[in-house]
Amino acid sequence: MKIDAISIFPEFFDVLEISLLGKAQESGLISFEAHNLRNFTHDRHKTVDDTPYGGGAGMLMKPEPWGEAFDQVIGKDRPVVIFTSPAGKPFNQELARELSHREHLVFACGRYEGIDQRVVDYAGTVAEVHEISIGDYVLNGGEVAAVAMIEAIARLIPGVIGNNESLAEESHNEGLLEAPSYTKPQSWRGLEVPEMLLSGHHAEIEKWRKAQSLERTKQNRPDLLDK
Ligand code: 6GU
Fold first, then answer.
1. If you measure from the C-alpha of residue 115 to the centroid of ligand 1, how many angstroms do you get, rounded to a whole number?
2. CA 176 to CA 214: how far, in whole Å?
3. Residue whose C-alpha is closest to residue 70's, from 121, 132, 12, 15
4. In the chain, N or C terminus with fewer CB closer than 10 Å?
5. Is 217 in the pocket of ligand 1 (CB under 6 A)?
6. Does ligand 1 have an atom closer than 6 angstroms to the CB of 142?
7. What is the pTM of this model?
8. pLDDT tens string 168-182
């Protein structure tokens, strides 16, 4: 998979060198490139923002640098372009799974109060566009959100994480949260591992885990049970 990110702070993406995603880049499973939007300006101050038409607080990202960045990054392959935005549709595991099957993703990371709408409209003529949010809170910019999405998507590509079983069994499968889990020692600071897990009765353990999943989901995410 090819992943590009366009941002005025490309350093935010340095963390993708770490751990499994770093290894996936070394092995060629993923090819990632961060592009500095300011490299697509032509004035001395490398201006990327301007005041909004119609008035209002704050600054907007102006369209021309985005257009030139897209000219370089978007080929004839009609990639998926993801605009990070608190006004986007919610990111979730299902969307991560869909995006993990695509050949080429481009993350367009906005700062300031947002981007001139024509940038989104233009991208729609040369790519498949999604505006995506990672949750109901506001970040200063889309870079951290893009890093979170890239990690969630890339780990679903076969070979990126070693263990296929942990992919199948983890949280957010079958719509329930994962059951609590324990390792050695059996007794720690007066706290014991639940007896059931020591029993060796695999069918009973599975039942116990299912009940725990349900209870945890009730407590932490009752909204998931309504679905
Ligand atoms: Cl994708 N961007 C920004 N700036 N804030 C957010 C977000 C994205 N998702 C949640 N909050």
1. 13
2. 7
3. 121
4. C
5. no
6. yes
7. 0.94
8. 546 555 789 999 999
